[in-house]
């Protein structure tokens, strides 16, 4: 990041741009009005985005709430509730100018006081991921009603990347100040500033949002209403799209073997856009605390034994590509100048012998998220058996999978995580010693510890110069690829099925989570 004014909304306004740079005249080409019928899977536990951050909640509530910024597919920051921002030369003072005339859905004005309350009070208490990202922040100050200053204790390289709606949603101070956040009745009827307002939730059936007719962007939203239909069975979700009941099926909501078939229906299409910010990355947890996974050569053998290409083609139907290491290629500072692990069964067998593997049977915990993951686990079991590693599958439901990983009760286990555009935001947590703690399936579950890696991740987070950060993170990648704390599998694509009558569906790096306001319906 260069130490200068990063972007000015004035230039965008002069060009006639609106959300994520979509020209207003292009939006106007779509027919205004109509209803979008979408699928949500599973049914979210709640819609108060400051309290619940799982995938279904983010997809729906990201169109109710807003953040200060949005991000394009290259993870470049874009205006949202903030129109411009500056950073001082030390990288320790960020000043945001807020958009005038923005109102909450109940008509109250949105001001800098809401920003301070959201980030410094509400979310520090309720949002664990943001709380960790705000560790570098010394103070948050409302300079005037439309100006906010974030003062940092030290430079934090990825700081400008933490302002999207799922990471830092703006919360109405006038509704939540002085209340018990978790039990506030307003949680059931969320109030945001976004293009859609909450209308109704019929449990087990649907959630309805309606257009915010006083939205702060002219001519947005362009549809009257969005229904998110709750359909528990994957085959039934596929049938709902095939029959025309629903227009929009988010990534992961139907089995991958159905995606290509459904995308070939008349008036249907598929896209993998809108996941760039999250950069879903899958791997195999290797429990470094236990033999034989405590041996580097054994872990390297596992890497050589896996046929990632076949798994991507067969289980993922081509909607995945082999990972080259710990960094997804969509995040900053990813490098291919690192060790490679092409499938080589002979090399795997040689490393197993050198590691002293005695042929003991290892427990493999699949991810209980449907047929694609079940097929992946079976392919992996066969791959490891061909190299001489004995594996038994231990099937669980989602709750059981969480519990076993929370308690480190596994040998090998599938997972995938989001990497949030920057290694300091979404990679370091899986490899640093300070993140070894029972109770989470998404921290350093493997138990890997290397003081040099800890030092480098800390230095990378505190460095603001991009070239210096690049050099630091190259060192990290080289060490991790040599020591193989986990067995990296794939960069995942979650294909979104939609009717071609829907236009402007994906306008940011988080896709459906904040783009429905610009969607058109022909």
Outline the fold blueprint.
Blueprint: E1 7-8, H1 9-14, H2 24-27, E2 35-40, H3 55-61, E3 69-71, E4 77-79, E5 82-87, E6 93-98, H4 112-126, H5 128-133, E7 137-144, E8 147-152, H6 173-176, E9 196-202, E10 206-211, E11 225-230, H7 234-243, E12 248-249, H8 256-263, E13 268-271, E14 281-286, H9 296-305, H10 308-314, E15 320-322, H11 345-355, E16 362-365, H12 371-387, E17 391-393, H13 398-406, E18 412-417, H14 423-426, H15 451-462, H16 466-483, E19 486-492, E20 496-499, E21 502-503, H17 512-515, E22 520-521
Parallel strand pairs: 2-11, 16-17, 16-18
Antiparallel strand pairs: 1-5, 3-4, 5-6, 6-8, 7-8, 9-10, 10-11, 12-20, 13-20, 14-18, 14-19, 15-19, 21-22
Helix pairs in contact: 9-11, 15-16
Descriptive overview:
This protein has helices spanning 9-14, 24-27, 55-61, 112-126, 128-133, 173-176, 234-243, 256-263, 296-305, 308-314, 345-355, 371-387, 398-406, 423-426, 451-462, 466-483, 512-515, and strands at residues 7-8, 35-40, 69-71, 77-79, 82-87, 93-98, 137-144, 147-152, 196-202, 206-211, 225-230, 248-249, 268-271, 281-286, 320-322, 362-365, 391-393, 412-417, 486-492, 496-499, 502-503, 520-521. It has 3 domains: 31-64 and 194-275 and 494-521, D-Maltodextrin-Binding Protein, domain 2, CATH 3.40.190; 65-175, Dipeptide-binding Protein, domain 1, CATH 3.90.76; 280-492, Dipeptide-binding Protein, Domain 3 (Dipeptide-binding Protein, domain 3), CATH 3.10.105. Helix 9 (296-305) packs antiparallel against helix 11 and helix 15 packs antiparallel against helix 16 (466-483). It has 522 residues and is an alpha+beta fold. A hairpin with a 2-residue loop joins strand 7 (137-144) and strand 8. Residues 1-30 have low confidence and may be disordered. It has 17 helices and 22 strands. The two termini are 40 Å apart.
